[in-house]
Specification:
Layout (H helix, E strand, L loop, with lengths): L24 H14 L11 H8 L3 H13 L3 E4 L3 E4 L4 H22 L5 H20 L5 H13 L5 H25 L2 H16 L3 H35 L1
Antiparallel strand pairs: 1-2
Helix pairs in contact: 1-3, 4-7, 4-9, 5-6, 5-8, 6-7, 7-9, 8-9
Amino acid sequence: MVAQKPFLIHSQVPAKTSALPRVTLVTSAVEALRHRILSGQFAEGEALNQVVIAREFAISRIPLREAMRQLEAEGLLIFQAGKGAVVSGLSLGEVREVVALRARLEPELLGEAIPKLREQDFEEASAILDQFDRALEEHDVAVWGELNWRFHSTLCAPSGRALTMGIVQSLHNLNQRYARVQISVAKWEHRAAREHRAILSACRRRERHKAANLLKVHILTAGRSLVELLEESRAAASLAEAK
């Protein structure tokens, strides 16, 4: 995945225009909005002001609405009567479903990809993990989700199953907002880094079953930890609202 430039100004209080390239207005708007959602700049349940965002991006509301519809198809936005586009949220059951789907699809993709992986794929995956390590040292939370997807996709894409890769990428996007919180609060990042290195090592040795199993355990373990964290945080939020 190509790294996306962050838009640092919150759409609700724009101080200046962040004009988008007019050649690819919809694509640019999709990438900009997706970045803000996945990075947490737009909170779960937040209604997006189309007038303000269109003015900030220096585009009309027509391509902006089309971009929002694409993000609705990805599951990142929903349209509600009286509110318009709202940042979607997942129930605990839906989070579990995302984890279960990833645990089923990704190891299968990896197993098919391993015989086709080339040395340049291994080098690229290793370089991504080096970037991840540097981001850990600098506590650069914003890039963790992107680097995580780049690592997973680098190893799985050679499977040649583009349709399944698209589904998996959508699952990563749904999971990414919550995973950022998990990494920050639960200190999951160091374990994730170790497990990524072990997966890459198994891939280099062409150990298909071991690599696929390591990936499955990695996804399921992280998923259980995430659900537990969300259960605790949502229970605490409910208790606070009740007082």
